[in-house]
Amino acid sequence: MNYLKKGFNFIASYGFACIIFVLLFILTYLGTVEQVEVGLYEAQKKYFESMIVVHWFGPVPIVLPGVYLLLMLFTVNLIAGGVIRMRKNKNTIGNLITHLGMLVMVFAAFVNYTYAMDGHMTLAENEQSSEFVSYYLWEVAIAQPEEGKVAQEMVIPHDAFAYLKDGQKTFTSASLPFDLTISGFAPNSMPVGAGPFVKETMKVVDGFALQKMDLDKEAERNVAGAYVLAKEKSGNATHEAILWGLSESPWSLTVDGKKYTVELRRKRYPLPFTIALDKFHQENHPGTGMASMFMSEVTKIEGETKTPVKIQMNEPLRHMGYTFYQASWQPPDPATGRPVRSTLAVVKNPADQWPLYSCIIITIGLTIHFVGKLGKYIRAENRRLVTRKAT
Amino acid sequence: MNFALRSFAALIAVAFAASAQSGSTTPTPPQQWSKEVIQLFSTLPVQQEGRVKPLSTHAGFVMLKLHGSRSITVPGTPKDRKLDPMAWMLDTMFYPDAAAHYKIFLIQTTEVVEAIGLKHDDKKKRDRYSYAELEPGIDKLFQLAQEYHRKSDGETKNLTPLEGQITALASNVFDYQKLAHFLDFARYDFHIEPGSVLSEIIPMPRLTAVYAKETQLGVTALALERGIEDIQKNLTPEQVEQLRKALPASVFTMDAESRAKAAKEINAIVRDARALSDRAMGLALFPPHGTTDDHPEWFTVSDAVGHMSHGDHADPELAGQLVDLEELVRQRDNPPAFLTQLQKFHDAMVTAATARGEYGKIPLEVSFYKYNFFYYALILYVLSFIVVAFSWLAPAKRWIAYLGTALLFPPTILTITGITYRCIIRERPPVSTLYEVILFVTAVACVVAIFIELVNRQRVAMSVGALIGALGLFIAFRFEAQQGTDTMPQLVAVLDTNFWLATHVTTVTMGYAAGLLAAAIAHVYILGKLLKFKKNDDTFYKNIYRMTYGVICFGLLFSVVGTVLGGIWANDSWGRFWGWDPKENGALMIVLWELAILHARLAGYVRDLGVAMAATFNAIIVAFSLWGVNLLGVGLHSYGFTSGIMPWLITFYIIELIVVFLGAVVWYRQKFARPSADAAHDDVAGSKERRKKPLPAKAHKQS
Questions:
Q1: Do the Cβ atoms of A294 and B600 come within 8 Å?
Q2: What pTM did the predictor assign?
Q3: CB neighbour burial string for B642-678, b if at least 16 within 10 angstroms, e if fewer
Q4: Interface pTM (ipTM) of the complex?
Q5: Domain segments of chain B: what residues?
Q6: Does the CB of B154 have a partner CB in chain A at under 8 Å?
């Protein structure tokens, strides 16, 4: 019992909080500096979304708790020390409010990390879409296209094939006449023609091999690739191909007289409504190449209801839990005839506005606490000055 | 910068310079521009870098970029003249041959001069050069700059320091050339044979006269080349009549050889006029008709001449303004006529800018730079610091301390006034650029220091306030000179929101200011202890500790709120509250460290000296957050990226680490030189006993 009490006292202590803050400080610094070398996405995974971090100081590995673990410990410390154990009186009311505000913040971060979806929707003028795509996640989509019909798709999600320990995995479905084996997934890759530059160890399919490449610092630039093998259930016939994220068309195969397509693509999230881009505006400050404004005029389409909306920097569109932000744009390309395109970042985050509430609570709490302290300080100094004058 | 394009244009300009100047008279530099002339030019609006500003502001930053300061001393008779930016710019534009001998280019190292094949026998390593001195090496300079531009993909960070300086010099020389040749179009007299076809069409051998008749010149040249009969075949009788009226009479009587020669002369003069006007692209002086939404871009001379001769679309008002400018240049050696002509041109430009609603802030901005608030504030802060220093030498004379405190008010008011001027001119909250961060941090730190001084009258806060004021404004001046660009630039689209600039940016910057002020006060604690200043006055150090702690609390409030507000802004503009972006992380690090300090104090891990050491280290974190992350060159806050401050930053880190180390020396000395009981209040850390029981309990009560 004594140990339990001691344990509780420790996790509720200022000292434990202090240790957590210092460790968070160190990890934040390391994760910031590391971004120069590996980019934000990798640094974020390594330092900020991990339980344990191994950081190399030159040849020396240092094991540290990851920010994810530290935030869990911080939450426990905050609840135990900053709420439960804290004395509740008029002197601590500000602190208590602050700590509650921080709990809201941490909870918002947890909800965001666990449930939020993000991606983008890129449209040319007069195009529309009812889905957005992930920046980082991939999926394999299998469809049986039929003329005049919208093909029903079966989707193998990112996590099912992106982290294969034994290098390959076979997927089967009762509704498909073949099993699909995915192997050699590479998060950043490029198909290369078979030739003297292709290593002997690289698998060649239809005259091409999949060249693995270093991860790009900007993770959204990575283009994944993988080998797939379709084995017919009704016989031993196999079909093999390389799937690549930038292929112009999906791989098609015919099994039992029916045509199927298999595609590696960025993960798609369906929307319960449609967004159509009517017009995109971009303006520079006069005489400069610096953008002063870019804005998408879109129409939100829900059944028969069409609502025109303007989306621009700092003025997103929020609807049904989804938020659309003006993220970037691509100029027209006269060489290919590609028109100007607007990219809207799309986020679905159940805790979207919680940080705002948390900020308000924390501001109130800290203001009460520190104004109280300031008042005490001023009164004490006044007393001291009066005493000094009297002597 | 599209360096390839600019350099190419520069080479053309250089190549053309000789021919243009050969047509001008030998220049005589003026002894002094009259106040009226300076005032009129200063308040002349010009559109540069995306905004309309006074010409004097533009002159100031061009001079700062080239020269590293806002004044230059040039040879004169009977004594040397000290020129402000406006006077220098006028000399450069109106007397380019004389200005070419002003030592306007600041070169940081003679290696740059060697690299472009010039000698520097009588020069210091860091010295100033005139255009005339650099001219023999300019071809090489542009060649190297283009080579480095290709090599580095236009990224300054990919260049060595020497390559960076050569590239910067090329950019400066190009800027200079644009100014020096801006009025060539008005100086130049085209050569026209008396009695020739050209002389029948063009009344005066000037650029505006050529452009005013550009259509007629084109038709005449065509008629001379192809023959009038050939052209008439495809025209209606009315058009034939118009053509006959447009053509000079002599065209109809010339033989074939004369016609060919005349056509060649016409084509040559049109070609030369275009080349000449293309060089006058340095300043967008002419406000177009219409609203700022319809026609946001102002015209340079090069743009404006294109509007002189477009038949029905010709703009006679603009043509008149161009002729006025041309006439102004030609009156440069006749001061009364020059002033009259300048007033006429100035009034026309002001009227046009006012009609577009773009002149309102110009006089205010001229006043802002004229009053030089921050310069005088810097002097007064230094004065205040000197008085404060005397107050420490004579502590019994309290009037000196009162005087020192009183002297802190004027510079702080001046600084705040300057910041307010900037807010009004820009129609923005006080902080939207790194330069403004320095000003705001200085003002906030000084206001807080004055407040503390008024409360506790220990002279520590006023000393620190005076020092921070002087240092802050000195750094602001250095930063402005080092960057050499307008400190009131247009903002990128994401920053174009006064709500978030007023809330997040202002709040988080107040947090930075408090962090630096706390560190400065902590320096007094550590250095005082180290030097055994007031060694028996525990109350003195206790007060400093309280000040440090209080300012950290103040800083934490604003850092936390500012950082969270930043996240909320990011959520509105980029779609995520927190993205672990370096700038966000920098702000978070300040929050985490300040939280660690407060909780370590409550836990008994640190006490007075420990808080002072930690607060000092916080200055490094603030500097990293403010400047260090901008040097990393990664993240979404790319609008804040900067360069050229790494040596300063590293020097600051080292100084602060030395102070922290000195704090450790103090701790070591106290721990091993004094009985532990005496060291109770100033231990870097509490004793085990204190940590175990009394402190947390007390701390809970306190909190």
A1: no
A2: 0.86
A3: eeebeeebeebeeebeebbebbeebbeebeeeeeeee
A4: 0.85
A5: 3-187, 197-355
A6: no
